[in-house]
Write a structure and sequence with these properties.
Blueprint lengths: L4 E4 L5 E2 L16 E4 L1 H4 L4 H11 L15 H4 L18 E3 L1 H7 L3 E6 L9 H18 L5 E5 L3 H13 L3 E6 L5 H9 L3 E5 L3 H11 L5 E3 L5 H7 L1 H9 L7 E5 L4 H16 L7 E7 L4 H7 L26 H10 L3 E5 L1 H12 L7 H15 L8 E6 L7 H8 L21 H12 L2
Parallel strand pairs: 5-13, 6-7, 6-9, 7-8, 10-11, 10-13, 11-12
Antiparallel strand pairs: 1-2, 1-3, 4-5
Protein backbone atom coordinates (compact mmCIF):
# COMPACT_ATOMS: atom_id res chain seq x y z
CA UNK A 1 0.00 0.00 0.00
CA UNK A 2 1.07 3.62 -0.54
CA UNK A 3 1.50 4.78 3.05
CA UNK A 4 2.20 8.48 3.41
CA UNK A 5 2.89 11.09 6.10
CA UNK A 6 3.57 14.83 6.17
CA UNK A 7 3.93 17.82 8.50
CA UNK A 8 0.72 19.72 9.23
CA UNK A 9 -0.24 22.66 11.43
CA UNK A 10 -3.49 23.05 13.37
CA UNK A 11 -4.94 25.10 10.52
CA UNK A 12 -4.30 22.42 7.91
CA UNK A 13 -1.17 23.76 6.18
CA UNK A 14 0.90 20.83 4.92
CA UNK A 15 4.63 20.37 4.29
CA UNK A 16 6.67 17.33 3.18
CA UNK A 17 8.72 15.58 5.84
CA UNK A 18 11.87 16.30 3.83
CA UNK A 19 11.37 20.06 4.18
CA UNK A 20 13.53 21.73 6.83
CA UNK A 21 10.76 23.37 8.81
CA UNK A 22 9.60 23.34 12.43
CA UNK A 23 6.78 25.89 12.53
CA UNK A 24 4.05 26.74 10.06
CA UNK A 25 4.98 29.55 7.67
CA UNK A 26 1.52 31.07 8.05
CA UNK A 27 0.47 30.70 11.71
CA UNK A 28 3.88 29.98 13.32
CA UNK A 29 2.35 27.03 15.16
CA UNK A 30 4.27 23.85 15.85
CA UNK A 31 3.87 21.18 13.20
CA UNK A 32 2.71 17.64 13.79
CA UNK A 33 3.27 14.57 11.64
CA UNK A 34 0.01 13.45 10.05
CA UNK A 35 -0.70 10.12 8.37
CA UNK A 36 -3.04 9.05 5.59
CA UNK A 37 -5.50 7.35 7.92
CA UNK A 38 -7.73 6.12 5.08
CA UNK A 39 -4.86 4.00 3.81
CA UNK A 40 -3.85 2.81 7.29
CA UNK A 41 -7.44 1.73 7.98
CA UNK A 42 -7.42 -0.57 4.94
CA UNK A 43 -5.50 -3.02 7.11
CA UNK A 44 -7.56 -4.49 9.93
CA UNK A 45 -6.63 -4.13 13.57
CA UNK A 46 -5.87 -7.85 13.78
CA UNK A 47 -3.61 -7.62 10.73
CA UNK A 48 -1.69 -4.75 12.33
CA UNK A 49 -1.21 -6.79 15.49
CA UNK A 50 -0.01 -9.83 13.52
CA UNK A 51 2.43 -7.69 11.52
CA UNK A 52 3.89 -6.08 14.63
CA UNK A 53 4.21 -9.44 16.40
CA UNK A 54 5.94 -10.95 13.36
CA UNK A 55 8.57 -8.20 13.32
CA UNK A 56 9.07 -7.55 17.02
CA UNK A 57 12.69 -8.03 18.12
CA UNK A 58 13.52 -10.12 15.07
CA UNK A 59 16.61 -9.78 12.86
CA UNK A 60 15.24 -8.38 9.58
CA UNK A 61 16.73 -4.87 9.43
CA UNK A 62 15.32 -2.41 10.34
CA UNK A 63 11.99 -3.99 11.32
CA UNK A 64 13.24 -5.73 14.44
CA UNK A 65 13.54 -2.31 16.05
CA UNK A 66 10.74 -1.43 18.43
CA UNK A 67 10.30 1.76 16.40
CA UNK A 68 10.79 0.59 12.82
CA UNK A 69 8.66 -2.49 13.37
CA UNK A 70 5.83 0.08 13.31
CA UNK A 71 7.27 1.98 10.33
CA UNK A 72 3.92 2.47 8.57
CA UNK A 73 2.54 4.26 11.64
CA UNK A 74 5.72 6.27 12.27
CA UNK A 75 7.60 7.45 9.19
CA UNK A 76 6.67 5.48 6.07
CA UNK A 77 8.33 7.93 3.65
CA UNK A 78 11.92 7.28 4.70
CA UNK A 79 13.68 4.64 2.61
CA UNK A 80 14.99 1.57 4.42
CA UNK A 81 18.54 2.16 3.21
CA UNK A 82 18.53 5.59 4.90
CA UNK A 83 17.33 4.32 8.28
CA UNK A 84 19.83 4.61 11.13
CA UNK A 85 18.74 2.14 13.80
CA UNK A 86 20.37 0.63 16.85
CA UNK A 87 17.40 -1.64 17.54
CA UNK A 88 15.92 0.86 19.94
CA UNK A 89 12.78 -0.05 21.82
CA UNK A 90 11.99 -3.57 22.95
CA UNK A 91 12.75 -2.46 26.52
CA UNK A 92 11.79 -4.43 29.59
CA UNK A 93 8.49 -4.12 31.40
CA UNK A 94 9.65 -4.73 34.96
CA UNK A 95 6.90 -6.24 37.08
CA UNK A 96 7.40 -4.32 40.33
CA UNK A 97 5.54 -6.94 42.36
CA UNK A 98 7.40 -6.42 45.63
CA UNK A 99 7.39 -2.62 45.43
CA UNK A 100 3.72 -2.67 44.46
CA UNK A 101 2.80 -4.89 47.38
CA UNK A 102 4.48 -2.42 49.74
CA UNK A 103 2.37 0.37 48.27
CA UNK A 104 -0.86 -1.60 48.12
CA UNK A 105 -1.20 -2.26 44.38
CA UNK A 106 -0.86 -5.64 42.72
CA UNK A 107 -0.35 -4.75 39.06
CA UNK A 108 2.52 -2.24 39.00
CA UNK A 109 5.02 -2.19 36.13
CA UNK A 110 8.06 -0.05 35.36
CA UNK A 111 8.78 0.48 31.66
CA UNK A 112 12.58 0.48 31.59
CA UNK A 113 13.27 2.86 28.71
CA UNK A 114 16.82 3.30 29.97
CA UNK A 115 17.60 -0.20 28.69
CA UNK A 116 18.42 1.32 25.31
CA UNK A 117 21.57 2.03 23.33
CA UNK A 118 22.35 5.41 24.91
CA UNK A 119 20.49 4.74 28.15
CA UNK A 120 17.27 6.73 27.70
CA UNK A 121 13.93 6.87 25.90
CA UNK A 122 15.34 9.60 23.62
CA UNK A 123 16.61 6.88 21.26
CA UNK A 124 13.02 6.14 20.21
CA UNK A 125 12.67 9.56 18.61
CA UNK A 126 16.24 10.14 17.52
CA UNK A 127 16.32 7.15 15.19
CA UNK A 128 13.44 8.68 13.21
CA UNK A 129 14.88 12.18 13.10
CA UNK A 130 18.41 11.17 12.09
CA UNK A 131 17.06 8.74 9.51
CA UNK A 132 15.06 11.54 7.90
CA UNK A 133 18.13 13.81 7.94
CA UNK A 134 20.03 11.01 6.24
CA UNK A 135 17.34 10.88 3.57
CA UNK A 136 17.36 14.66 3.07
CA UNK A 137 21.16 14.60 2.67
CA UNK A 138 20.91 11.74 0.16
CA UNK A 139 18.46 13.81 -1.92
CA UNK A 140 19.91 17.33 -1.63
CA UNK A 141 23.06 17.20 0.49
CA UNK A 142 22.52 20.67 1.97
CA UNK A 143 22.57 19.87 5.71
CA UNK A 144 25.96 20.49 7.30
CA UNK A 145 25.11 19.28 10.83
CA UNK A 146 22.34 18.25 13.21
CA UNK A 147 22.13 20.06 16.53
CA UNK A 148 20.25 20.18 19.81
CA UNK A 149 20.05 21.84 23.19
CA UNK A 150 20.00 19.27 25.94
CA UNK A 151 19.98 18.49 29.63
CA UNK A 152 22.00 15.36 28.85
CA UNK A 153 20.00 12.51 27.36
CA UNK A 154 19.00 14.15 24.07
CA UNK A 155 22.62 15.08 23.39
CA UNK A 156 23.80 11.54 24.04
CA UNK A 157 21.21 10.09 21.71
CA UNK A 158 21.75 12.60 18.92
CA UNK A 159 25.53 12.21 19.07
CA UNK A 160 25.32 8.42 18.84
CA UNK A 161 22.87 8.29 15.94
CA UNK A 162 24.58 11.10 14.04
CA UNK A 163 27.92 9.37 14.50
CA UNK A 164 26.48 6.11 13.17
CA UNK A 165 25.17 8.01 10.13
CA UNK A 166 28.41 9.94 9.59
CA UNK A 167 26.63 13.28 10.09
CA UNK A 168 28.30 16.05 12.17
CA UNK A 169 26.50 16.82 15.45
CA UNK A 170 26.50 20.06 17.47
CA UNK A 171 25.49 19.88 21.13
CA UNK A 172 24.57 22.82 23.39
CA UNK A 173 24.63 21.95 27.09
CA UNK A 174 24.15 24.11 30.21
CA UNK A 175 27.54 24.24 31.93
CA UNK A 176 27.83 22.07 35.06
CA UNK A 177 24.17 21.06 34.88
CA UNK A 178 24.58 17.58 33.39
CA UNK A 179 26.30 14.60 34.93
CA UNK A 180 29.82 13.59 33.96
CA UNK A 181 28.42 10.38 32.51
CA UNK A 182 26.00 12.31 30.28
CA UNK A 183 28.67 14.79 29.20
CA UNK A 184 31.11 12.13 28.08
CA UNK A 185 28.59 10.44 25.76
CA UNK A 186 28.54 13.13 23.02
CA UNK A 187 32.25 13.77 23.55
CA UNK A 188 33.04 10.09 22.97
CA UNK A 189 30.86 10.03 19.84
CA UNK A 190 32.78 12.95 18.34
CA UNK A 191 30.14 15.67 18.57
CA UNK A 192 31.07 19.34 18.83
CA UNK A 193 30.01 19.89 22.45
CA UNK A 194 29.42 23.47 23.60
CA UNK A 195 29.14 24.01 27.36
CA UNK A 196 27.26 27.29 27.83
CA UNK A 197 27.01 29.41 30.96
CA UNK A 198 23.22 29.29 31.09
CA UNK A 199 20.39 26.85 31.82
CA UNK A 200 18.54 24.59 29.38
CA UNK A 201 16.07 27.29 28.42
CA UNK A 202 19.01 29.57 27.53
CA UNK A 203 20.54 26.84 25.38
CA UNK A 204 17.18 26.27 23.73
CA UNK A 205 16.85 29.95 22.83
CA UNK A 206 20.22 29.93 21.08
CA UNK A 207 19.69 26.67 19.26
CA UNK A 208 16.37 27.93 17.87
CA UNK A 209 18.18 30.99 16.52
CA UNK A 210 20.72 28.72 14.86
CA UNK A 211 17.87 26.66 13.42
CA UNK A 212 16.85 29.64 11.29
CA UNK A 213 19.78 28.61 9.10
CA UNK A 214 18.74 25.85 6.70
CA UNK A 215 22.15 24.16 6.81
CA UNK A 216 21.67 23.18 10.49
CA UNK A 217 18.92 20.69 11.33
CA UNK A 218 17.22 20.98 14.73
CA UNK A 219 16.87 17.75 16.71
CA UNK A 220 14.91 18.92 19.76
CA UNK A 221 11.34 17.74 20.30
CA UNK A 222 10.02 20.95 18.76
CA UNK A 223 10.66 18.82 15.68
CA UNK A 224 7.73 16.40 15.63
CA UNK A 225 9.73 13.65 13.92
CA UNK A 226 11.07 12.98 17.41
CA UNK A 227 7.52 12.64 18.73
CA UNK A 228 6.71 10.06 16.05
CA UNK A 229 9.41 7.71 17.26
CA UNK A 230 8.60 8.25 20.92
CA UNK A 231 4.92 7.46 20.43
CA UNK A 232 5.85 3.82 19.78
CA UNK A 233 6.31 3.41 23.54
CA UNK A 234 2.50 3.35 23.84
CA UNK A 235 2.17 0.72 21.14
CA UNK A 236 4.95 -1.37 22.66
CA UNK A 237 3.43 -1.26 26.16
CA UNK A 238 0.07 -2.48 24.87
CA UNK A 239 1.78 -5.12 22.72
CA UNK A 240 3.69 -6.40 25.74
CA UNK A 241 0.35 -6.83 27.54
CA UNK A 242 -1.13 -8.86 24.66
CA UNK A 243 -2.89 -5.72 23.41
CA UNK A 244 -4.61 -4.86 26.70
CA UNK A 245 -4.66 -1.21 27.80
CA UNK A 246 -3.42 -0.28 31.30
CA UNK A 247 -5.50 1.87 33.63
CA UNK A 248 -2.80 4.45 34.36
CA UNK A 249 0.48 5.58 32.80
CA UNK A 250 2.68 7.89 34.90
CA UNK A 251 5.44 9.76 33.10
CA UNK A 252 7.92 12.45 34.22
CA UNK A 253 7.62 15.69 32.25
CA UNK A 254 10.12 18.42 31.41
CA UNK A 255 9.98 19.72 27.85
CA UNK A 256 6.77 17.65 27.59
CA UNK A 257 7.43 16.04 24.20
CA UNK A 258 7.23 12.61 25.86
CA UNK A 259 3.77 13.35 27.27
CA UNK A 260 2.58 14.37 23.82
CA UNK A 261 4.10 11.29 22.22
CA UNK A 262 2.59 8.95 24.80
CA UNK A 263 -0.88 10.27 24.05
CA UNK A 264 -0.46 10.22 20.27
CA UNK A 265 0.45 6.53 20.31
CA UNK A 266 -2.68 5.57 22.21
CA UNK A 267 -4.92 7.81 20.09
CA UNK A 268 -3.56 6.30 16.88
CA UNK A 269 -4.23 2.76 18.11
CA UNK A 270 -7.74 3.75 19.14
CA UNK A 271 -8.49 5.18 15.70
CA UNK A 272 -7.20 2.02 14.01
CA UNK A 273 -9.26 -0.21 16.30
CA UNK A 274 -6.19 -1.85 17.84
CA UNK A 275 -7.47 -0.79 21.26
CA UNK A 276 -10.98 0.14 22.37
CA UNK A 277 -10.25 2.47 25.29
CA UNK A 278 -7.67 4.93 26.56
CA UNK A 279 -5.68 4.85 29.80
CA UNK A 280 -5.45 7.84 32.11
CA UNK A 281 -2.16 9.72 32.06
CA UNK A 282 -0.41 11.37 35.00
CA UNK A 283 2.46 13.76 34.33
CA UNK A 284 4.98 14.12 37.17
CA UNK A 285 7.09 17.25 37.58
CA UNK A 286 9.84 18.25 39.97
CA UNK A 287 8.54 20.89 42.38
CA UNK A 288 11.46 23.15 41.46
CA UNK A 289 10.61 22.99 37.73
CA UNK A 290 6.83 22.76 37.60
CA UNK A 291 5.27 25.12 35.02
CA UNK A 292 2.81 22.46 33.81
CA UNK A 293 1.73 21.67 37.37
CA UNK A 294 1.07 25.36 38.00
CA UNK A 295 -1.01 25.53 34.84
CA UNK A 296 -2.93 22.40 35.89
CA UNK A 297 -3.81 24.12 39.15
CA UNK A 298 -5.68 26.73 37.10
CA UNK A 299 -7.48 24.09 35.04
CA UNK A 300 -5.00 24.80 32.23
CA UNK A 301 -6.55 28.25 31.78
CA UNK A 302 -3.21 29.94 32.38
CA UNK A 303 0.39 29.14 31.59
CA UNK A 304 3.44 31.13 32.57
CA UNK A 305 7.02 30.17 31.85
CA UNK A 306 9.19 30.13 34.97
CA UNK A 307 12.87 30.08 35.76
CA UNK A 308 13.48 26.49 36.79
CA UNK A 309 15.35 26.06 40.04
CA UNK A 310 18.12 23.55 40.58
CA UNK A 311 16.77 20.03 40.99
CA UNK A 312 18.26 16.56 41.22
CA UNK A 313 16.01 15.67 38.28
CA UNK A 314 18.23 17.63 35.90
CA UNK A 315 16.70 16.29 32.67
CA UNK A 316 13.36 17.90 33.52
CA UNK A 317 14.78 21.13 34.95
CA UNK A 318 12.90 23.15 32.34
CA UNK A 319 10.81 26.24 32.98
CA UNK A 320 9.56 26.99 29.46
CA UNK A 321 8.62 23.68 27.79
CA UNK A 322 8.26 23.90 24.02
CA UNK A 323 5.58 21.18 23.87
CA UNK A 324 3.32 22.74 26.51
CA UNK A 325 0.28 23.12 24.24
CA UNK A 326 0.62 19.61 22.83
CA UNK A 327 0.88 18.18 26.33
CA UNK A 328 -2.15 20.07 27.65
CA UNK A 329 -4.20 18.87 24.70
CA UNK A 330 -3.23 15.26 25.40
CA UNK A 331 -3.87 15.49 29.14
CA UNK A 332 -7.36 16.84 28.51
CA UNK A 333 -8.11 13.98 26.11
CA UNK A 334 -6.92 11.39 28.62
CA UNK A 335 -8.59 12.84 31.72
CA UNK A 336 -5.04 13.36 32.90
CA UNK A 337 -3.59 14.85 36.04
CA UNK A 338 -0.36 16.66 36.87
CA UNK A 339 1.42 16.41 40.21
CA UNK A 340 4.80 17.35 41.62
CA UNK A 341 7.49 15.94 43.86
CA UNK A 342 9.87 17.70 46.23
CA UNK A 343 13.58 16.91 46.26
CA UNK A 344 13.20 14.75 49.35
CA UNK A 345 10.18 12.93 47.93
CA UNK A 346 11.82 12.08 44.61
CA UNK A 347 15.04 10.89 46.25
CA UNK A 348 13.21 8.76 48.82
CA UNK A 349 10.91 7.25 46.19
CA UNK A 350 13.83 6.29 43.95
CA UNK A 351 15.76 4.77 46.87
CA UNK A 352 12.73 2.91 48.20
CA UNK A 353 12.06 1.33 44.80
CA UNK A 354 15.77 0.52 44.42
CA UNK A 355 15.43 -1.71 47.47
CA UNK A 356 13.10 -3.95 45.46
CA UNK A 357 15.55 -4.55 42.61
CA UNK A 358 15.39 -1.36 40.56
CA UNK A 359 18.10 1.27 40.04
CA UNK A 360 16.22 4.47 39.33
CA UNK A 361 17.29 7.75 37.79
CA UNK A 362 16.07 10.88 39.62
CA UNK A 363 13.44 11.58 36.95
CA UNK A 364 11.90 8.17 37.50
CA UNK A 365 12.01 9.06 41.19
CA UNK A 366 9.72 12.01 40.42
CA UNK A 367 7.22 9.68 38.75
CA UNK A 368 7.45 7.16 41.60
CA UNK A 369 6.85 9.90 44.18
CA UNK A 370 3.71 10.94 42.33
CA UNK A 371 2.66 7.27 42.12
CA UNK A 372 2.89 7.03 45.92
CA UNK A 373 0.80 10.18 46.36
CA UNK A 374 -1.86 8.93 43.95
CA UNK A 375 -2.15 5.63 45.81
CA UNK A 376 -2.41 7.44 49.14
CA UNK A 377 -5.17 9.65 47.70
CA UNK A 378 -6.88 6.52 46.30
CA UNK A 379 -6.78 7.90 42.78
CA UNK A 380 -5.14 4.58 41.97
CA UNK A 381 -7.03 1.52 43.20
CA UNK A 382 -5.32 -1.66 44.37
CA UNK A 383 -6.33 -3.66 41.27
CA UNK A 384 -5.46 -0.98 38.70
CA UNK A 385 -2.79 -1.81 36.16
CA UNK A 386 -0.25 0.99 36.45
CA UNK A 387 2.76 1.68 34.23
CA UNK A 388 5.50 4.04 35.38
CA UNK A 389 7.75 5.25 32.58
CA UNK A 390 11.39 5.10 33.64
CA UNK A 391 13.00 7.50 31.20
CA UNK A 392 16.69 6.71 31.73
CA UNK A 393 19.08 4.32 33.40
CA UNK A 394 20.19 5.15 36.92
CA UNK A 395 23.75 4.40 35.82
CA UNK A 396 23.87 7.88 34.29
CA UNK A 397 23.40 9.48 37.70
CA UNK A 398 25.91 7.93 40.14
CA UNK A 399 26.34 11.17 42.08
CA UNK A 400 22.60 11.21 42.78
CA UNK A 401 22.90 7.70 44.18
CA UNK A 402 26.12 8.26 46.10
CA UNK A 403 24.90 11.51 47.66
CA UNK A 404 21.74 9.82 48.95
CA UNK A 405 23.61 7.03 50.71
CA UNK A 406 26.50 9.18 51.93
CA UNK A 407 25.34 10.19 55.41
CA UNK A 408 26.51 13.67 56.39
CA UNK A 409 27.60 14.24 59.99
CA UNK A 410 25.14 16.19 62.16
CA UNK A 411 22.36 15.72 59.61
CA UNK A 412 19.56 13.14 59.80
CA UNK A 413 20.17 10.27 57.36
CA UNK A 414 17.78 9.78 54.44
CA UNK A 415 14.93 7.40 55.12
CA UNK A 416 16.22 4.54 52.94
CA UNK A 417 19.96 5.08 53.22
CA UNK A 418 22.35 2.14 53.21
CA UNK A 419 26.00 2.71 54.03
CA UNK A 420 28.85 0.18 54.08
CA UNK A 421 30.24 -0.93 57.41
CA UNK A 422 33.99 -0.47 57.75
CA UNK A 423 35.35 -3.33 59.86
CA UNK A 424 38.59 -5.00 60.79
CA UNK A 425 39.25 -8.09 58.70
CA UNK A 426 38.47 -10.43 61.61
CA UNK A 427 36.03 -13.36 61.33
CA UNK A 428 34.18 -13.08 64.66
CA UNK A 429 33.56 -9.37 64.25
CA UNK A 430 32.32 -9.84 60.66
CA UNK A 431 29.93 -12.60 61.74
CA UNK A 432 28.70 -10.53 64.68
CA UNK A 433 27.77 -7.65 62.40
CA UNK A 434 26.11 -9.96 59.87
CA UNK A 435 23.98 -11.50 62.63
CA UNK A 436 23.09 -8.08 63.96
CA UNK A 437 21.98 -6.92 60.50
CA UNK A 438 19.90 -10.02 59.75
CA UNK A 439 18.16 -9.93 63.11
CA UNK A 440 16.74 -6.44 62.56
Amino acid sequence: MNYNAWFECENGCKYPLTEIIYRCKNCNGLLQVKHDMDVLKQRSAEDWKCLFEKRYMRTQYPYGSGVWGKKELVCPTVEDNNIISMYEGGTNLFWAERFGSQLGVSDLWIKQCGNSHTGSFKDLGMTVLVSMVNQIISESGNIRAVMCASTGDTSASLAAYASAAGIPAIILLPKEKVTREQLIQPIANGALTLSLETDFDGCMAIVQELAARKDFYLANSINSLRIEGQKTISIEIVQQFDWEVPDWVIIPGGNLGNVSALGLGFLLMLELGIIDKLPRIACAQAQRANPLYRSYQTGFTEFKAITAQSTQATAIQIGNPVSIHRAVRVLKQFDGIVDQASEEELADAAARADRTGLFNCPHTGVALAVLIKMIERKQIQKDDRVIVISTATGLKFPEFKVAYHNVVRDQPPPRYHNTPLELEAEYDNVLKNIDKHLSV
